[in-house]
Design brief:
330 residues, Rossmann fold, UDP-galactose 4-epimerase, domain 1, 2 domains, 3-stranded mixed beta sheet, binds uridine-5'-diphosphate-4-deoxy-4-fluoro-alpha-D-galactose, UDP-glucose 4-epimerase, Epimerase_deHydtase, EC 5.1.3.2, NAD(P)-bd_dom_sf
């Protein structure tokens, strides 16, 4: 049996494909390469196409013996989603509807879903528990919540079991050095800080230092991308074992401010990394930190690369070796 990975050429998708291939799984990837990179798919069979294209999905499901899907394919930028919500509803929500309908048609009843801490909005508790309220502060988080709810009703009606993994802030790169983070445009804090360290940017802009946090900058919970990948493998196992649908947070349970991330990056890189303070970015909650005890207890998940210094060091290794990202090798 094969696992279909949608968005498997993207950052977290490609690391999950690598983890699945490492344990001998047959992998099929569908990716429209809007954000993904062909070179990032190591070991899987790649179909270039869009989930909203019924012909592509028919081909993928007919040509392969798929028993489970891991669904990453989506737009995922908080800032962009506040300017272009329609793009997020179309690609994320409608794309997921197309996928679930085809899964039902082809009798594929297991899906692991790439969800996000952005489903919570401003948290009512820190760390955040899966049962806490979900009131997204940005359109991106709203679409991911809508996708989760859609899965719930497809489970009720059609018995499609899902595991939704709500990630906090993914960072770092694969230990092989072959895959890492490369978005265009790049908007995430860790790669931008490292681009500044490499001199590719004049400075890092800090979006707001007037939040109600100790140093005034936003606090996030950074998790190594390969630890996230491991959780997907465990979630597939859990569904194959006949478990019911569930939602899990994935984070380290420890928060770091934007200024602290920059400070650690200065230490790791031994570079100056100039910083300027700019206005807040729309849609950013002040603090997002996970309680991942449910994932640890029920999935048996045990993040191994949990020191932020090590996470940033692995990203730094990738950025130094691939200063232009994947495209530079084309
Ligand atoms: N930040 C800056 N300057 C930058 C980039 C980011 O100050 O140049 C700040 C942001 O304002 C935020 C923090 O750094 O406070 C982290 O920002 P990222 O863009 O790296 O990450 P987000 O927390 O906005 O979002 C990420 C993913 C989402 C996911 C979310 C969950 O992009 O998909 O984590 O926490 F939903």
């Amino acid at each position: 049996m094969a696992v279909l990975v949608t968005g498997g050429a993207g950052y977290i998708g490609s690391h999950t494909v690598a983890a699945l291939v490492e344990r001998g799984e047959e992998i099929v990837v569908i990716d429209n390469l809007q954000q993904g990179h062909r070179e990032a798919v190591i070991g899987g069979k790649l179909y270039v196409g869009d989930l909203r294209d019924a012909d592509v999905l028919d081909t993928v499901f007919k040509e392969n013996n798929i028993d489970a899907v891991i669904h990453f394919a989506a737009n995922s930028l908080v800032g962009e989603s506040m300017k272009l919500p329609g793009k997020y509803y179309h690609n994320n929500v409608y794309g997921t509807l197309c996928l679930l309908e085809k899964m039902n048609e082809y009798n594929v009843k297991k899906i692991v879903f790439s969800s996000t801490a952005a489903t919570y909005g401003e948290p009512e508790n820190v760390p955040i528990d899966e049962l806490d309220r979900t009131v997204p502060t940005n359109a991106y988080g709203e679409t991911k919540l809508a996708m989760e709810k859609m899965m719930k009703w497809f489970d009720t009606a059609h018995g499609i079991k899902f595991v939704s993994l709500r990630y906090f802030n993914a960072a770092g790169a694969h230990e092989s050095g072959r895959i890492g983070e490369d978005h265009a445009p790049e908007t995430h804090l860790v790669p931008i800080v490292l681009q500044a360290a490499l001199g590719q940017r004049p400075h890092i802009s800090v979006f707001g230092d007037d939040y109600g946090t100790p140093d005034g900058t936003c606090i996030r919970d950074y998790i190594h991308v390969s630890d996230l990948a491991d959780a997907h493998v465990l979630a597939v196992d859990r569904l194959r074992g006949g478990a019911d649908s569930a939602v899990y947070n994935l984070g380290n349970g420890q928060g770091f401010s934007v200024k602290e991330v920059i400070e650690i990056a200065r230490k790791v890189t031994s570079r100056e990394i100039p910083m300027i303070i700019e206005p807040r970015r729309a849609g950013d909650p002040a603090v997002l930190v996970a309680s991942s005890s449910r994932a640890r207890n029920e999935l048996g998940w045990n993040p191994k690369r949990n020191q932020l210094e090590d996470i940033i060091r692995s990203a730094w290794t990738w950025h130094q070796a691939n200063p232009g990202g994947y495209s530079a090798k084309d």
